[in-house]
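User: Hi! I'm working on a homework problem where we have to compare a predicted structure to a textbook description. Could you give me the structure for the chain below?
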Amino acid sequence: MPANAIVDRYRRPLRNLRISVTDRCNLRCRYCMPEAEYVWLPRRDLLTFEEISTLTDVFMSLGVDKVRITGGEPLLRRDLPELVSMLSGKPGLRDLAMTTNGVLLADNVAALKAAGLGRVTVSLDTLLAERSRTLSQRNSHAAVLEGIASVAPAGFTGTKIDTVAMQGVNDDELADLIEFGRTVPAEVRFIEYMDVGGATNWSKDLVLSRAEMLSRLTEHYGSITPLRNNDAAPADRFELPDGTTFGIVSSTTQPFCATCDRSRLTADGMWFRCLYAVEGTNLRDPLRDGASFDELRELITGKWAARTDRGAVDRLAERDRLPFVPLATLKSNPHLEMHTRGG
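Assistant: Happy to help. Predicted structure tokens:
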């Protein structure tokens, strides 16, 4: 833990900041953005790159040393490599990564590498084009695969593939995706289907649990060895008999709230301390009203020090678990959407 890191009520440090640069996306994945129409954030409210850089400096002064650029789809934000360049040069930033759906990645990967981006994570839920069309409601599977193929030649290492694993949807592709990851190369992380934000069709019957994933992969590969986590990363990592590794993010059935050091900054400057939080803190208005660096530090420090969020643990305790936020509420408050707060 950095010496300057502040901690919340459960002694969890503030270390990992996810910065959404847009709430818009060019896919309509059924587990995240299944609706035909959405209420978008006003463009005038979006933080400028300079404002994002300033707030990042404040967060870093309080212990943040890992930043992930997200969306929506971050590559829809014009001139994104300029922001990457502004962030990558900050002393003390240990890790600068980006999560993307990969559709626009091939055309941007060289500029992102040149700007100083450290790592790339690409979402890929299936290797089958027709299944991808059904899941994403778009015909972009070939572009995603092209984007993934472009990452290693551009010089990136440490690449990850994120797969939302769902019962009866893509649960027959677990081993196939791991095998695909070998060829990229990339480490595959399977994510349990979560009931946050736009998951308006969420059902516990669609959740493929960590236990079930491990059972199926053990049947396919043989003995699987758990690896020790040395940080607060959300994925538990495992090793196959041949040394290939993969991860599982089990936020639905085995939440990792006890070690969560992440918070999220939306594209319009709302700061959320938990993916399940229904209220955030507006950092844009104080910034634009002339708040000093120290005043912003004090605001962030006070909110984090009071943090008691354990959203996934609280949800797990509910007996009759339904989608977290109904559609009508999402339409009236777009900040509750997962694609708005960086997933």
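For your comparison, note the following. The longest strand covers residues 95-100. Residues 293-305 form the longest helix (13 residues). Good luck with the assignment!
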